[in-house]
Amino acid sequence: MMHADRLAAFVALGQRLTALLSPAQADELADLCARARNNNPWFDAPNVRAAIEGIAQMLQQEPLRLWAGRYRPEPDPTPRLVGVVMAGNIPLVGFHDALCVLLSGHQLLAKLSSDDTVLMRWILNELTTLEPRFAEAVQLVERLNAADAFIATGSDNTARYFEYYFSKKPHIIRRNRTSLAVLTGRETPHELGLLGEDIFRYYGLGCRNVSKVYAPVGYDFPLLLDALQPWQHVLQHNRYQNNYDYNKSILLVNAAPHLDSGFLLLTESARLVSPISVLHFGTYATEVDLVDQLTDVAAQTQCIVSGGGQYAGSFAFGQAQHPGLADYADGIDTMAFLADLG
Questions:
Q1: Residues 9, 79: one domain?
Q2: Residue 322: inside a domain
Q3: Cβ contacts of residue 126 below 8 Å, gap of 6+?
Q4: What is the pLDDT of residues 218-259, one digit of tens each?
Q5: Would you say 89 and 82 are in contact if contact means Cβ atoms under 8 Å apart?
Q6: In this structure, which of 24, 119, 182, 235 has its CB flanked by the most CB atoms within 10 Å?
């Protein structure tokens, strides 16, 4: 199968996902969402739909063609078996790796996360239905011994395990990362409201979820909490509410200063990663101070958001969970890695 055929198959998959989101296929989508939530209670219908919408957008023909055109169209000299250890923290988070492996002409050995088996099996089956020749290039496996190269996503602890076992072959090992927001005090209530998408989408479980905000000294944080009120529905999820209740009790027992919106706890912390239902904040005195602080944590940062994307290298508020094809996890160019396998 040539590069043009593979590209056409993924474009067709994007069209299939777009159709699935239409009212005409509401029953099929509802069934898929129900099965996904049965497998993982965090994967409720709005978040499954958001993940599918993101992939459908990603697979539009022209952006896909331009992105893929930056890389070698065929493996040199032959296709390799690429083992991918997929994460399952948010719906379909492993899809981008599958896209990269297959579009680059290699064969995929996928070890699915137990937290995201329903959706990943479904989307790979849809792909092979649209292009049956992909069936020979996709294997769902429990062990990756046969792989010629590896891509693995996990925690800092599992990354050390991966480094040891995959050290003798080409590999990409991803670690814990999180995302940050920069506030200036000049944001409108509407802009601050958009930040809710970055904080609460997928209940804060993704590496692109904002877990900490940086604000100028003296910032009026109640303005932010007021703007986030439309997201109070997250408390309807029993697991989120359990986290909220637990973390609130910890802050109260420790007499830790915090603000409580009724569904989000805001507290100052030097740590980047916050528990579910908690948002950390830090302050900066000058722009130079802000740059220094962000530079110090760059290795642990997946992305940064700011009002209108005004901060250099940042996404606009509300866009953290809408990465482009070239917004690679951990900043490692997966397609370049695959193009160099030989």
A1: yes
A2: no
A3: 13, 16
A4: 999 999 999 999 999 999 999 999 999 999 999 999 999 999
A5: no
A6: 119
Q: Determine the longest span between alpha carbons in the chain, in angstroms.
A: 63
Residue 21 lies in a domain: yes
Decide if 21 contacts 29 (C-beta within 8 A).
Answer: yes
The closest of 54, 63, 47, 68 to 18, measured between CA atoms, is 54
Asked whether 283 and 215 are in contact (CB, 8 A), the reply is yes
Helices 45-58 + 26-39 axis angle, to 10 = 110
Looking at the structure, tell me whether residues 150 and 198 fall in a common domain: no
Instruction: Work out the burial of residue 174: count CB atoms within 10 Å of its CB; fewer than 13 is exposed, 13-18 middle, 19 or more buried.
Output: buried
Q: In total, how many domains does the chain have? A: 2
Whether 263 and 235 share a structural domain: yes
* Neighbouring-strand partners of residue 177: none
With 80 as the cut, is the pLDDT of residue 71 above it? yes
Residue 297's CB is within 10 A of a number of other CB atoms, namely 16
Same structural domain, 150 and 123? yes
pLDDT tens for 188-229 read 999 999 999 999 999 999 999 999 999 999 999 999 999 999
Distance CA(144)–CA(203), nearest Å, equals 31
- Whether residue 335 is contained in a domain is answered as no
Instruction: Give the whole-number percent of the chain exceeding pLDDT 90.
Output: 94
pLDDT band at residue 14 using 50, 70 and 90 as cut-offs? very high
Burial of 141 (0-12, 13-18, 19+ CB in 10 A): middle
User: Which structural domain range is residue 55 located in?
Assistant: 3-176
Please indicate, yes or no, if residue 108 is contained in any of the structural domains.
yes
CB 308 within 8 A of CB 191: yes
Burial bucket for residue 336 (CB in 10 Å: 0-12, 13-18, 19+): middle
CATH code at 161? 3.40.605.10
Shared domain check, 187 and 48? no
Q: Where are the beta strands (DSSP E) in the chain?
A: 81-85, 107-111, 138-140, 149-153, 171-174, 178-182, 210-216, 259-260, 265-268, 278-284, 301-306, 315-316
Residues 197 and 272 in one domain: yes
In angstroms, the CA 285 to CA 190 distance is 25
Residues 63 and 80 occupy one common structural domain: yes
Q: Are residues 149 and 190 in the same domain?
A: no
